């Protein structure tokens, strides 16, 4: 009887969150298209209100948790991993720097900016600090009291972060679009109507140098702010799904990250990371300078990306083949965090797939094909294949049960010294491992027989004793060799998988950098804009690109977990 009201509370809270998000989304869209009567101050006022409500709820929850500290509370050991908390803390610190830049920007243009543009970064900074503290302390909680109220509080927090993420994505996309339009003007695209979307203040800055630093620095910090809010929303969503959940007492398996054994993967991954940073720097310097330099920059980008994606596909296929050679069951237990990870991987990959299929269709349908556009074809195909393979590898990895060490293998070996030779009185490793220890059948183990036989026949002659001891030693050595060789093969497979996970982790970080910091050939290629039209293709890119960027960061986080778990 108690589950039915709680199911209703879950449905009602989710509908409340969706309506909250849709209202903010329409307000954001109205500001972006310069709707009549809608200004940026209206959008910021709405976001400030949502953040203040979340702050009140988090303070209430923290105070209530302090009063109930002595009570034993259930925890979800799979939620809120330490490395995830460290990652969100790093993004939060950079977000605080972004807020300080916005405050400085407001002070310099205070004569012609709305007061909400100064209140917003201050409120956002306080919201960020308290939210990170809340997630560090309570991300693993399984709430069992005030469940209806807590559902509304948590889902409010989820969609507040999603709206802040949407606002950051839109602001950053508008800046990227303006830069793209300026490059098109430089390259002389006369057949495209270009109108710059300028939201700059209509007054002079009090300190020109500081204004330039603040205005330019803000857009380089936005990618970290975007990742912070999407990570926070996913952690809060898992907390919402865990409300009222019944969990069995399970032992938490600590999986610390170790550099030992992943040297090869780290070296190749760092090479990819370093080369990607160099490619991005050259690309941003060369693109838009002239037509020849732009085409060379695009060609350089495509060749590098094709090489990296081909390596990632190969590594993923090798990992999947290793899994096919192993016979290990999958963990199908209920786990909201793991389920969300798998859904986000497939869902956000659709953004890249949409852009890739758009590029493939443009290449097929275009009448004229500049030379550099042909590199876009293998690049787009490899993007589709690589995500397909990588998703399969990650999802299978996080669902595989961890290999448990057999306690019988840890049996203390009893040794005796007889006539100068050391004999083991325990069964061989192979017999223990296969569950065929001689003691289970009521027989004396072969090693015991060898020792006892030697002692019983001591009066009959030393030759028989020595022969028995030699036979026992040979059997013991052969058994141990069989176990160690099998264990060696398993360790080699694990070492290869850890190196592949480390390599893919660094590769995903590398592929996150170009679109996050303005290296977007989907904008600069030009072929898609000619086939689909400028405005339609830009809309597709602006909708799909945030999901593509998030996919790379989420994949890197998942691969880090895979590396720790393997």
Classification by helices and strands: mainly alpha
The count of helical stretches stands at 16
Tally of DSSP β-strands? 2
| Cα separation of the termini | 42 Å
Number of domains: 2
Strand order within the widest beta sheet? 1-2
Principal-axes shape call: globular
Oligomer: single chain
Q: Which residues form runs of ≥5 with pLDDT under 50?
A: 405-459
Helix-residue proportion: over 70%
Q: How much is the radius of gyration in Å?
A: 31 Å
Mean pLDDT: 77
Largest sheet: 2 strands, antiparallel
**SSE succession:** HHHHHHHHHHEEHHHHHH
Query: What fraction of residues sit in β-strands?
Result: under 5%
List the helices and strands and how they pair.
Layout: H1 3-32, H2 40-67, H3 82-108, H4 116-138, H5 147-187, H6 208-241, H7 263-286, H8 291-325, H9 336-365, H10 376-399, E1 415-418, E2 421-424, H11 429-433, H12 446-456, H13 462-516, H14 521-524, H15 527-532, H16 534-565
Keywords: Cell membrane, Hydrogen ion transport, Ion channel, Ion transport, Membrane, Transmembrane, Transmembrane helix, Transport
GO cellular component, one term: plasma membrane
Main location: membrane
Give an overview in words.
The protein is mostly helical and 566 residues long. It has two domains: 1-248, no CATH class; 257-402 and 488-565, no CATH class. Helices cover 72% and strands 1% of the residues. Strands 1-2 form a two-stranded antiparallel ribbon. A hairpin with a 2-residue loop joins strand 1 (415-418) and strand 2. The chain starts with a helix and ends with a helix.
